[in-house]
Amino acid sequence: MKSGKRRLRYIVSWMACGSLFPMPLMASSDTLSVWKMEDCMRFAAENSYAVKRQRYETASLKADRDGAIASFFPSVSGSVGAQYSFGRSIDPTTNTYSNVRTFNNSYGLSASLPLFSGGRYVKQWMLASANLQMGKNEVRRLEDEAATNAMQAFADAVYYRETMRLSALKLEESEKNLHKVRREAELGLRGKADIAQFESQVAADDYDLTRQRNLYRTALLTLKQVMNYPVEKDLELDGTLPEIPLTWPVEEAAEIYERAKTSTPAALQAKYRFRAAQLAYKMRIGAMMPDIYLRAGVNTDYIDGYTQSFKKQFRDNMGEYVAVGVNIPIFDGLSRNTALRKSCNDMFVARENENESLRQLRDLIEQAVMDCRGYAKEALQMRLKVESDSLSYRLVLRQYEEGLATPLEVQSRANTLLQSQAEYLQRVWLLEMRRRVVGYYRDGSLY
């Protein structure tokens, strides 16, 4: 009997203290290595389908930028033509009609260079460069988004795994208590009511363990989906609890915001969109101006029927030209004016979106800093509460063994201890996630 009591107290002490501060998990030789939170985040960022798609789209934007650069160079084209005439036609030697067959072969080479286009080509190149910047920044934003989702999924999976383990320990302890009460009832020391109470506790703990196991499996599946990790493979997670900072840095949210608005992808994306809208508006203004272009070319031909050879005709019939043209837009159904007004409105919308993004970023940073400070205090307080609830549970269990407490009190204190342990785990992981978010806004890196 005494050895059973000592074993029971050992289990209670382990459940109350040791289970909250587990040793780091070690991977065996026949399993995968242990995955830390940053490992899962990095894997998710590298294997996200959205990130891969955006990388291809960014490559297309780079091609558009290169094409905009190429528009500054002259366009050169060549032409070759051949014509075979038969029946009644004009004899080129006498300029009279005759019924002869003739063969005409022509060659041409022309070049065109824009001299002035209202700045459209320059703005087109700048717009393509801005779009390329947006594409690269979007890749980074999607990587950070995938990493953030993996961080949340990892914390959920580890949390439910730990609550499942706590539930298993509690079920094991309840079964030992039930076995002990049944033995005492056989000796006439306990009644059937006590047995029924502990049987109810075992059933409730068994149900809670099944529920926590299902929640853990769901959370683990969600993590694999977020990471784009093969579902059929095992994923061993490192569930070591992060350390709780005793003091929080005095850096204020305003200081973090000043760095975040020039480094975070969300803020930069809004800035790039406004810049692109400005350039598009200036391009529409340039479309209202005349186009001036320079053209030059050379052409020659060969006519069958002359006495001269092909080489002599090719040289003697050669002609060159140089031309300067001006294209002045006068009226096109007000399409240019309509496009100009729309692009102006798009620019104003982009500016408001940028202001809204910066305001949201400021609010998110303020909330993240407040959460870190709050969760740090709550985690420390919950750790003290776990210790207090553990001591309270041990005392009421001792009182029950001495006949000074009821099974209902034992059950109530056990449930309170389990709830405190779960809340402590939750606060620690919430603190860890918010701490990483604040570090991301401050330093630009999640892992």
Describe this structure in words.
With 447 residues, the protein is α+β, with helices and mostly antiparallel strands. It is built from 10 helices and 6 strands, in the order αααββββααααβαβαα. The strands form 2 sheets. The protein has a 4-stranded antiparallel sheet with strand order 1-4-5-6, with helices on one face. β2 and β3 form a beta hairpin. α3 packs antiparallel against α4 and α4 runs antiparallel to α5. The chain is elongated, with a radius of gyration of 40 Å.
Overview features:
alpha+beta; 447 residues; disordered N terminus; two-stranded antiparallel sheet; four-stranded antiparallel sheet; 10 helices
Strand order of the largest sheet: 1-4-5-6
The helix/strand series, from N terminus to C terminus, equals HHHEEEEHHHHEHEHH
The number of distinct β-strands equals 6
Report the mean per-residue pLDDT as an integer. Answer: 83
The rounded Rg comes to 40 Å
Strand content: 5-15%
**Number of discrete helical segments:** 10
Which overall shape is indicated by the principal axes computed on the Cα atoms? elongated
Q: Can you tell me the residue ranges where pLDDT is under 50 for at least 5 consecutive residues?
A: 1-32
Please describe the biggest sheet, giving its number of strands, its sense, and whether it closes into a barrel: 4 strands, antiparallel
Helix vs. strand class: alpha+beta
Proportion in helices = 55-70%
Whole-Å distance between the termini? 52 Å
